[in-house]
Amino acid sequence: MTPTEFQALTGADDAKVADLESFIARLTEANAVMNLVGPDSLPDVWNRHIWDSAQLLELAPAASTWADLGAGAGFPGVVLAILLKGRPGAHVWLVDSLGKRCRFLQEVVQALALPATVINGRAEEQTLRVDVVTARAVAPMEKLLGYTQPYLQRGAQGLFLKGEKAEAELIEARKVWHFDSDLSVSRSDPRGRLVSVRSLRRVHSR
To answer: Which residues are noted in the entry as S-adenosyl-L-methionine-binding (predicted)?
Structure first.
């Protein structure tokens, strides 16, 4: 995928594409000294990472506030912040427990003047109230739902980027959690899945 093709899919303006290109350059440089993404994924970065992240906005077009748990390299959170830049009330919280990843994210947020806040801490310990909580390649669904439970209980929708094992992960998660979910095929990779979750509670809670 090229930046032009990405623009055609998303309607992103030239300024946002320029921000995305600056982000990619910073990611590529940082990736040489710390493991943020698999190096083999960078040649196809616009599809594998940028479009993969951006498609979440189509599932929650009215959402202005997002929390990205295990934000890592900035997918999907930094991409969402770039695309939401300029929307009144838009903000993305980038939550990660590893200091060096947070320092990278903070540099990107400051350099691109993004509507985002970096939080160095454990996802499940935050008291954020957001429209959507999201995560990508963080943990199997059973564990991920534990991380996101506080956000969902405060009214957030869960939107998660998962791989081809998503269906099996949901089956396992239902042994521990009651929840409503929708599953759709990723537009960036037919093997990927987008999982939407609401109404989460533990199976044995009273």
So the answer is: 70, 75, 123-124, 136
Instruction: Name the residue type at position 41.
Output: S
> What is the reported pTM?
0.95
Domain ranges of the chain: 3-202
Query: Is 123 labelled a binding residue?
Result: yes
- Going through the chain in order, the beta strands assigned E by DSSP cover 65-69, 91-96, 116-120, 132-136, 157-162, 177-185, 193-202
Topology of domain 3-202, CATH: Rossmann fold (3.40.50)
Contact predicate 64/14, CB 8 Å:
no
Phi-psi region of 43 (alpha: psi -120 to 50; beta: other; left: phi over 0): alpha
pLDDT in tens, 147-182: 999 999 999 999 999 999 999 999 999 999 999 999
The pLDDT tens digits for 89-116 are 999 999 999 999 999 999 999 999 999 9
CA distance 196 to 182: 5
Q: Annotated binding residue at 168?
A: no
Residue 70 annotated in ligand binding: yes
